[in-house]
Amino acid sequence: MVRDSSCQKHLDVVLEAAGFDLWENDLVDGSVIRPVSKVLVELGYSPEEFARTIDGLLSLIHPEDLDVLRQALDAHIKGDSENYHAEFRVRSKSGEWVWYANYGKLVDRTSTSLGRRLVGVSLNVSERKLREREIERLNARLVEQNAILQELATMDAMTGVANRRRLLELGESEFERARRLGHALALLILDIDDFKAVNDVWGHLNGDHVIRRVASICAQNVRVNVDVVGRLGGEEFAVVLPEVSEAPAMALAERLRAAIESEVVALDGGGAVTRTVSIGVASLTADCESFVSLLARADRGLYAAKQHGKNCVGKAEDR
């Protein structure tokens, strides 16, 4: 008996040094054989307040965590898990929620009985949970920052539309899809007419205002998450139009031309300016070998529009 008492004292010392609190419950009559005294003291309770029954202790556990605890316990009682393990929040006397981990095992298990006594330990894991939440927060922030960086890498910084590299990537992807499925695909190329005069007369900052307004008008007049507006460079833009044949592409080009012509752009230092665009249109045909070849056809249409006096819409066949 002295040996048992001595072993128990040694066990208590080891568990306390490791931060564990030993407990024992009777699962048949619901009584607490050995309460979680250390846990109750940490939480600001006296051992008598909630240590009489299992239900009394369960009343301290966060409602959202009760199912987790019960499922872990049921799995162990049924023999689906070798040990019982659950992590949950416990309400302190001051109202704060503190994270604990429970580890336990049924004893007195026989071939005809699943055992009535559950013996285990509890451990305060609040610091670990705080670290885990901080890591999760930092990971979420990292994912967000990576998404922003990815967007910046594919976006034209001045206008917010796709940059040239992204435009060519998406254009090639849409080209391959259209060829594979036998669907329509159209492409517009827009160039701001006589743009050099804007820079020469009103300055490059005002030239940037004009470029941004043209990009904005294009983005506002196409299908969101379907069509792709991109800046090829300088004052030249392109619009990729999946599932669009030549006639509706020509109609959209004309709407864009008219909208840009009627737009009045305010200038820094006072005054305003209007500008027109020439637009080339191309649609997917059997002789197109790649998106680049479709781009070349639209470029020939743009050249035709310039040759016809600018501020108009042209096709390669118009040359």
CATH architecture of the largest domain: 2-Layer Sandwich
Total domain count: 2
Q: Note poorly predicted spans.
A: none
Shape: elongated
* Helix/sheet category: alpha+beta
- The share of residues in helices is 40-55%
> How many distinct beta strands?
12
CATH superfamily of the largest domain: Reverse transcriptase/Diguanylate cyclase domain
Pattern of helices and strands = HEEHHHHEEEHHEHHEEHEEEHE
Major β-sheet strand ordering? 2-1-5-4-3
Discrete helix count: 11
How large a portion of the residues is in β-strands, by DSSP E?
15-25%
Describe this protein's structure.
With 319 residues, the protein is α+β, with helices and mostly antiparallel strands. The chain folds into two domains: 2-126, 2-Layer Sandwich (Beta-Lactamase); 158-318, 2-Layer Sandwich (Alpha-Beta Plaits), CATH 3.30.70.270. It is 48% helix and 23% strand. The chain has a five-stranded antiparallel β-sheet, with helices on both faces. It has a five-stranded mixed β-sheet with strand order 7-8-6-11-12, with helices on both faces. Strands 9-10 form a two-stranded antiparallel ribbon. A hairpin with a 5-residue loop joins strand 9 and strand 10 (272-273). Helix 8 (195-202) crosses helix 9 (204-220). The longest helix has 29 residues, at 126-154. The protein is elongated. It starts with a helix and ends with a strand. The mean pLDDT is 88.
